[in-house]
């Protein structure tokens, strides 16, 4: 996601014009291309302000992305059972903490350090000399903050798919491995100057439909496959059973928080405060809304009821879908991409249920399937002109972009799948992946963490809480 | 909410002086008034940065407003019963998604498109040629994003008042109609160059006490009246019964989120990053705080207990109340407006209960009554000088502003009431508005959506969840 | 937190260089030091934009800090019992509302008004003449908004420690007293030009490890000590009993929200949009993550289970710990400070349990102990050069900073303890502090507030809700 590189890609695809050319003159990264330009003192002063603005904006965007951790935790908690809700919370809190530290220590260097086309090989522990040049106007701390938030997002997607049956210590180690090694390598390929960014028509994934979401979704699929389905998920005849989540309000509030966070995720990926940012926010908004409406209508037609959890996943599907092309597609393109994602997610959820990948929250469908769709969609819908009506819907540059997108999706999917098979196989062979049958049936909360998610007196008005307090008062 | 217009109004009323005059020179919208000015290269560069800053700030404000959707969902869920909580979530998620798409398709053009004094008649589907000039420094995507967030807010206010008894498909259609037609017409009158903005002393509603909140509140009253009260709300003698909400924590966290979102709602309505923005945030803060404290004290005196749900509604009442005058009143004015809103909301809640408008969350009182109060209050408290002590409390310009405010409130209320009667009458005659008695008693969640809000094993430590898992394990 | 003063301290300690020197030229506060400089029109225009940017950024940071109120409410609700959850919500909502009004009326003047070294004596009710100069580029409304959010934070820390047994009206009065008098005096000492900022080596607490958190934590300890432990907290033999919280999801979502809010709390305390801000965000991120991981590992080793509530408190401990030095320490320093805070919090929680300070949420340990640690740590870890590798880990300037830090911590702790003893003793003697035994056993919600936190039909699928609706339908 080097800003120079991304801007060039977008210029090639969408041709957006920045209001403030001063932004292009400000950063040292651009000095070599523009060395003849002499700025007046006033222009230099304005360029300094623009540089600060770029950093402040991306910092705020990073905070919005970090807020998505709360959204993921709520969606996952809401769509799973109460008896393992402390475990869900522990996993979500720890994959963020561990992920951030692992990414700071080595992941960031693997992703953005100088090196070959495959992996960065310098810059451990945020070495400020390695990264002295920054990224456009962004300083190392700003860029790291934003990227660390992304790394933690990729990590946490997996949590829901592996819910209700995974050993906590294995998940703890997994969090470290994906943010330290697996995710950074993919980032290096696409945003760190690696081979996918060096194709003749560079692979384009603006904000990470594939780099973040598909990586998380595939890791989730591998994890769920290694674990096997939850006890009781399938009847003796092999038919899937619905295991309803314990709190729809949690799930939908989580979706709202993720929607809010996505306005950091996508517009922040511009890595600058410029005129293109608001348009990115609008394509994000429209795709998410379209995904929600379409998924609701599809499941309503298919199953006879407007399933709200599916509508929530439809919103997320639309958002994941538009993430790769958010800066390159028209508003119409965004609505179409989101709508198709809203269809895909419904059928994908039923499909994975049928092939016995037990994914309690639909993470594989939302992030894996729609992440791949989003990256492919760039090759179909990236517009010559991002204006709403003027633009042709389909990419004018022929099929070369589409070919690059297919290459990229296949390569990322293959690498992630292989890497995660190694990770989960190693964990299974050493620490073990799955809890005991007894623990799974009784819930992970008390067994793994020593605390129930909901201590008894939640049921107000029942005698439980009252009696126990009275009892306590006299013993 | 055209920035030129609003700035003039505010200049006439409050006379705030912008720190950065450069902001006024930057936008093309101002070029015609200032055509003699020749800027140096440095000034032009600074104006470009200011233009970017304006867009980024309003985008961030829009994200805060979008976050309010989560706040509304939590307040409504918390103050209603668990058996219909999935339905509340579905309504809140869908009125946002449907509302955004409807507003993009036609609502925005009705609101801000060129046209007569009544309604815009051009600019469908965000036509970028129609809106090429932007709004001050704001580009079409920025302005649309902010306005779409507002439209969705107006739509979602109604959800709580119609809770626990409305057919989902009718609510779905309602969401489309209000954001596509009803709300945009009011916006056109006030912020889109329509007749209320053309009065000799233009009607002043800075951020939408009436345009957003009163419209939502009146639509809520009409909807609740058409539906009739929930089963069991009134005794055989016709006395109202309290039906307590199922989660006070949800309700109050919702209030906090709405408070946070209001810092986008009001300060963002400045539609620019300038020196007036922080003052708007402070009047917002003080009015919300005053509303909360006063409503708590009033209900404490009146009923003998400090009812926390009423305190939460008091905070919202104060915020709604100050929204129209937030940029035109002193800090003292804000405290007084918020305090009076905190009194009004308590008595209004009891009043609507008595006249058998069953509004489970108090939306009519908070948004309808206090929205009207806020718009009127502009005519009473708008200050010559917004400094805290120096300003006279009451508007110096005589009664002309007050007359305009009364005209505006009456016109908006009348139009909204008539339009919503037509909408709900049509829905009642076709799809039907109310669910069956059986469904209402058992809860809308399972009947309408096929999922309970809280699946059984939420009651940790009870045998339910455990037994069913064991049972599942063996069948 | 006067920006001039803080910048000087930081310059002396860390030596960060601002990208945009224009920022230094813009504010009137700097004019006296730079009076020979003549700016071109372009530079002046850029300085105006920078001034607006400074205000907008700090306003956004203030909104993030205000959002922390929701985080505190969720953490406290989650870690206490359901039967008093409405009371927790009422306290959190009201300490914010009351706190904001009290701080606007007198607290702000005590804190930042001109006066001696002990307390400000002018500027009541946000008198704009007293504060006409602003703070660097920040105007009175911006600076007040940020500081009011801080004052409310100090107030709300106490709520959790006094949970489940405090009379609401006494808490209401306490909220007023701490934000009107106690907290502002400490602020005056450190950020308002008072005696701790006038030491030869000025006391350094960048964002309030001691000023906000330790003050809150000590007030919490005094409050909990005055109240005595909850009924049932100790066995007849005097051994502490675990009273598990009623919702771990609430607690951990609260931690996430607090983490998000801290990106306003610490980076916003720079009081300007400049190049130092992102680095502050990164030390904040790393310390919070380290605190979470270390606390989890320590409690895992100590107690045998990875207690998620303790991990959440570990995150908060790391954040509290780094808050004083966030702008002065290296990334390594932040990781070490956070890690030590993560160890301290675990042992502190067990320690206070043992000495019969019943603090249901761990507020004394998190905010009191780790707040003190954070302030001391500035004397140990403030770096000559904030680059990651280049800097020596320990402070180069000898022991003078450490001595100042110890003086400051002791003085603040002593004053707060004495002041709060007076406050709580006075409340105990007049209104009374503790509810009746009956009320405590049955829960404060119904007795104090007249509403249960969770009305009966939360237990979906059980006959309760259904029956009562049916019953209601026929009576």
Explain what this protein looks like in three dimensions.
Three copies of one chain form a homotrimer. Chain A is an all-alpha fold and 475 residues long. Chain A has helices spanning 3-13, 22-26, 41-78, 85-112, 140-161, 168-190, 209-227, 248-268, 277-303, 308-323, 331-354, 363-381, 400-429, 437-442, 444-449, 463-473. Chain A has one domain (3-440): Ammonium transporter fold. Chain A has 16 helices and no strands. In chain A, helix 5 packs across helix 6 (168-190), helix 5 packs parallel to helix 7 and helix 8 (248-268) packs antiparallel against helix 9. The model of chain A is unreliable at 1-34, 385-397 and 458-467 (pLDDT under 50). Chains in contact: A-B, A-C, B-C. At the A-B interface, helix 3, helix 8, helix 9, helix 10 and helix 11 of A face helix 3, helix 4, helix 5, helix 15 and helix 16 of B.
